[in-house]
Amino acid sequence: MNTSDYGYWLPKGASTFAPEIDTTLYLVHILMVIMFVVWGIFFIMFLVQFRSGNEKKVVHSGYPKVIVPISMIAFVVIFDMYMLFGHDIPFWNHLKKDFPDAEKSTVVRIVAQQFAWNVHYPGQDGKFGRSRPELVDEKINPIGLDFDDPYAKDDITTVGQLRIPVEKPVIIHLTSKDVIHSFSLPVMRVKQDVIPGMSIPIWFEPTRTGN
Prior knowledge:
Layout: H1 18-49, H2 67-97, E1 106-113, E2 116-121, E3 156-159, E4 170-176, E5 181-185, E6 190-194, E7 200-204
Parallel strand pairs: 1-4
Antiparallel strand pairs: 1-2, 2-3, 4-7, 5-6
């Protein structure tokens, strides 16, 4: 994507579900600002009312003054319940279970290693060639592609370059050759840990082109 997409806040979204994720972040930050202001005022009130030398004692009749913080706690609980059960869990379930049809999507494999991301495209036949650990050569064949496999003959591999079409779902299968890695595409609002020994699928749909 363009370097202008990155500023002091979130980079400009480039996937279909980026606006929904951004809205969640905005709401949470607004809530934090409100809590900071209210609790700050409440804290200052207590410091003034019960400061040293004021000769005032804490009495039960003074407890109604905490009605604002109690109301704030109730607001936070209701807000969190809404965000969790009304938005976050349904949205997370959608991302993890409602995968697009692979036949109508761009399917890519990405193999992580220190310090590179190996991108494996299936070629025109749409089939990934077989990979074998004993064929790994860090200079010419970092993912161990078996070129004796007919499906591997038209496969394409790159390092650190992911090129995908817009307005078409993308499914990426993430694997690792060595340790745990963190795969991140900020403009797509995608972030996923890559675990050795596991193939972890993720998906998104790009909405605009970039450099």
